[in-house]
Amino acid sequence: MRHLAPFAIGTILKAKKLNGVLTREKGMIVLMLGLTVGLEKPKRNFKRGAVVLLPIDGSIRFVLSDMEVQRPMNHIGEVLSGIEELDKTTSGEAAELSFQMV
């Protein structure tokens, strides 16, 4: 979904691997990565399955329930399958991300 945040998604795709530790925060799974990107087409409302990036801390977040957030975020994609697996994760688990262009 490059059209949603072209610079942020370009930065993510240039990275060969994205590894980090998961935490849970208010209806989201957070993967702290420290990515350096700016705010693009900011949104505050997200549906379950949205993948968003918070530019302030460079984290990628997986939305587990429909929500409105206080800080605007870049919507960078959607979880296409397996969101139930994210529901089972706990804080402290290691994660590695791979992205697929559709």
Name some characteristics of this structure:
seven-stranded antiparallel beta sheet; globular; mainly beta; 2 helices; 14% helix; 102 residues; Cyclophilin; 7 strands; single chain
Describe the structure.
- The protein has 102 residues and is mainly beta.
- The chain has one domain: Cyclophilin.
- It contains two helices and seven strands; from the N terminus they run αββββββαβ.
- It has helices spanning 6-14, 83-87, and strands spanning 18-25, 28-32, 43-46, 50-54, 59-63, 67-78, 94-97.
- The chain has a seven-stranded antiparallel β-sheet, with helices on one face.
- Strand 4 (50-54) and strand 5 (59-63) form a beta hairpin.
- It is globular.
- The model has no long low-confidence stretch (mean pLDDT 86).
Q: What kind of sheet is the major sheet?
A: 7 strands, antiparallel
Order of SSEs:
HEEEEEEHE
Total helical elements: 2
The overall pLDDT, averaged over residues, is 86
Shape: globular
Q: Could you please say which CATH topology applies here?
A: Cyclophilin
Number of strands: 7
Q: In percent, how much strand structure appears in the residues? A: 35-45%
Structural class, judged by helices and strands?
Answer: mainly beta
N-to-C terminal Cα separation, in Å?
Answer: 7 Å
Cα Rg: 12 Å
Low-confidence stretches: none
What is the name of the CATH architecture? Answer: Beta Barrel
